[in-house]
Design goal:
By secondary structure, the protein is an alpha/beta fold. Helices cover about 65% and strands about 10% of the residues. It is elongated and about 155 Å long.
Length: about 425
């Protein structure tokens, strides 16, 4: 038998310590402990508590393991109710999930940086386009000022020419009167009556005086006309104006195109789900009328005006393959929008296209045409009114045979 020191003096708590596991069991236990700690940290972060642990005794491990089993059971039940498979039993599943989440987060961060760069480029391009539009506007204003000045000179020159012609005719009439008076005077010279001679002499003097005055006026007008503009200078200005008109026209169309590109993201709606309630009802009614004949179509439009409070105020046609709107049509649109002074007005531009040329190309032309028209209205409306554009798509509503007749846009005025 051993001594008391060797047999019964061992610490009683040592009997309760777990038996030291072998190598494989130790590895597995460590992995399980890591998984449990991850779950515990997740729960603590969700509930706002701080986990404080100074030791990983056997009782703590057992409690955590039991808690982990309960959480897995509840999670699997919830996933089963949603029709999802249970959580994997592999001890490294949490680590794998964490790695995947970290990888996805890195990918999202990279994509976010890329999007920020693209947005920055788009913003720079937009500012560049705005600068170009400002330059075009300034140039157009300068050209308009030159044209106004030339028109003023042209009107002045035209008025002067007409006045010269009128005075020349008056001078010719005065000359004829002088000749007639001289003839009558010669006939009366041998007559004894002096009264007729005196009268004729007075008429002759008056005619001569009028003739002199007319000559002075003509000379003055000719001198003034030379100071206003010479014929050569006028011809040069007219030629310059003829050269400026196509350039100005081209610049105005370019401004129209660039304004449409800038307004496209905010004015054009890709889906009718983005429309407010009344415009959405209008578009739904229009879809029912795609193959309606003209007489029934007019009746349907009257019904729309009564039930929805919407009416067509303008129809704009386009040349085949073109998205431009002529400037005389812009003036018509301006007059129409100016008459719609109600602040509670919503303008909806509905674009249509024929069934020729392919659906994708037709939708592109349709959206650009509708946005071009909406962009013009956007510059004319008051600040409380709204305008949006949407593409209806292919139709044969306007004509069953003439494809160009279906390449139109309708402007609907809706009372909100």
């Amino acid at each position: 038998m051993g001594t008391p020191e060797n047999s019964d003096t061992t610490n009683p708590e040592a009997k309760n310590l777990p038996i030291k596991p072998n190598g494989n069991m130790l590895t597995t236990s460590l992995i399980v402990i890591i998984v449990i700690l991850l779950f515990v940290m997740l729960l603590v972060s969700m509930n706002g508590n701080i986990l404080r642990s100074s030791d990983t005794s056997g009782d703590d491990i057992a409690a955590l393991t039991s808690r982990n089993i309960q959480l897995r059971t509840k999670t699997n039940e919830a996933r089963a109710n949603r029709g999802l498979p249970p959580l994997p039993k592999a001890p490294n599943s949490a680590l794998t999930m964490a790695t995947r989440i970290q990888r996805d987060a890195s990918s999202l961060a990279a994509m976010t940086s890329q999007w920020q760069e693209e947005l920055k480029k788009k913003d720079e391009l937009l500012r560049e386009r705005e600068s170009e539009i400002a330059a075009y506007t300034q140039n157009t204003q300068r050209l308009y000022a030159q044209i106004k000045e030339l028109n003023t000179k042209l009107d002045l020159a035209s008025g002067t020419s007409e006045q010269i012609l009128r005075l020349t005719n008056d001078l010719e009439i005065a000359r004829n009167k002088i000749l007639d008076t001289n003839k009558q005077l010669q006939e009366l010279i041998g007559r004894p009556t002096n009264e007729a001679v005196i009268i004729l002499r007075k008429q002759l003097n008056d005619s001569l005086d009028a003739h002199s005055k007319l000559e002075l006026q003509i000379d003055k007008l000719k001198f003034d006309a030379q100071n206003v503009v010479s014929q050569k200078a006028y011809d040069d200005l007219a030629a310059e104006l003829a050269l400026l008109k196509p350039k100005m026209r081209k610049q105005r169309y370019e401004m129209q195109r660039m304004r449409t590109q800038i307004d496209l993201p905010k004015l054009f709606l890709k889906s009718d789900k983005d429309l407010p309630a009344k415009p959405a009802r209008l578009l739904a009614e229009l879809k029912k009328l795609n193959d309606t004949d003209k007489q029934d179509l007019n009746t349907a439009y009257e019904n729309i005006a009564t039930t929805i409070g919407a009416k067509i105020i303008h129809r704009q046609s386009f040349a085949k393959g073109s998205v431009q709107i002529d400037f005389d049509r812009e003036a018509i649109i301006r007059d129409i929008i100016n008459k719609s002074s109600d602040d509670n007005t919503y303008f909806l531009v509905v674009g249509y296209d024929s069934k020729s040329g392919g659906k994708e190309r037709g939708e592109t032309l349709c959206s650009q045409r509708a946005t071009t028209l909406a962009s013009i209205i956007n510059t004319l409306r008051n600040s409380k009114q709204e305008v949006q554009a949407i593409c209806f798509g292919e139709t044969t509503r306007s004509s069953k045979t003439d494809e160009a007749a279906n390449q139109i846009c309708e402007v609907w005025e809706i009372k909100r």
